[in-house]
Amino acid sequence: MRIDILTLFPEIALAPLSESIIKRAREKDIVSIEAHNIRDWATGRHKKTDDYLCGGGQGMLLKPEPIFAAIEQLRTPDSKVILMTPQGKPFKQAIARELSEEKHLIILCGHYEGVDHRVIEQLVDEEISIGDYVLTNGAIAAAVVTDAIVRLLPGALGDERSHQDESFSDPNMLEAPAYTKPNTFRDMEVPAVLLSGNHKKIAEWKQEQALLRTLQNRPDLLGDA
């Protein structure tokens, strides 16, 4: 898989993608990730990438010219263009799974008040938001989305079953509580069923506890369950 991130802050996008699991996936050539500075496609003496809003309004907007030039240069017949924006559809595990099947993603990062809408009309295939809040720039959001996608690629995780047992693998259920050694810590015990060796009982306990955690923390998920 190839992922190209278009942003005014390439270092911000790449920093969390240069450690741990994602770093190893890149080293094993499971994925190629590059972050490009939109300013590299800007023209003129000042390499201007933003301007005031037509019709008035607060803030600045990313200009269409450098974005069009960048995407037209990077795009291939296999490309899918994603825009990170608070106005996009909520990013969920199911979307990460769908995007992990793509061959090439171009992730465009908004900044200031976003991007000229002609970019969205002509170039963008999908608008994605990582939550109902506003970040300083989309590079942080692009790193989050990239991380979620890459860890689903075959070979990225040490155990291919890892992502199958995580929260949101079932979109209506969180994970059950997890414990490790020591079995007793500050008078707090690991639940006895987890030490019993009875796999049927353990599976039943995990299912029950997953339901309880979902009721406590994310009851909204159970609406469709």
Automatic annotation (TrEMBL):
Assigned EC number: 2.1.1.228
Enzyme category, top tier: transferase
Entries under InterPro entries matching the protein: Alpha/beta_knot_MTases (IPR029028), tRNA_m1G_MeTrfase_C_sf (IPR023148), tRNA_m1G_MeTrfase_TrmD (IPR002649), tRNA_m1G_MTases_N (IPR029026), tRNA_MeTrfase_TRMD/TRM10 (IPR016009)
Organism: Rubritalea halochordaticola
Protein name, UniProt field: tRNA (guanine-N(1)-)-methyltransferase
UniProt xrefs under PANTHER family: TRNA (GUANINE-N(1)-)-METHYLTRANSFERASE
Pfam families noted in UniProt: tRNA_m1G_MT
Family affiliation: Belongs to the RNA methyltransferase TrmD family.
Location in or out of the cell: Cytoplasm
KW rRNA processing (keyword) present: no
Domain tRNA methyltransferase TRMD/TRM10-type: 1-222
Function of the molecule: Specifically methylates guanosine-37 in various tRNAs.
Subunit relationships: Homodimer.
Transmembrane keyword on record: no
UniProt catalytic activity: guanosine(37) in tRNA + S-adenosyl-L-methionine = N(1)-methylguanosine(37) in tRNA + S-adenosyl-L-homocysteine + H(+)
Predominant place of localization: cytoplasm
Keywords per UniProt: Cytoplasm, Methyltransferase, S-adenosyl-L-methionine, Transferase, tRNA processing
Residue sites binding S-adenosyl-L-methionine per the record: 110, 130-135
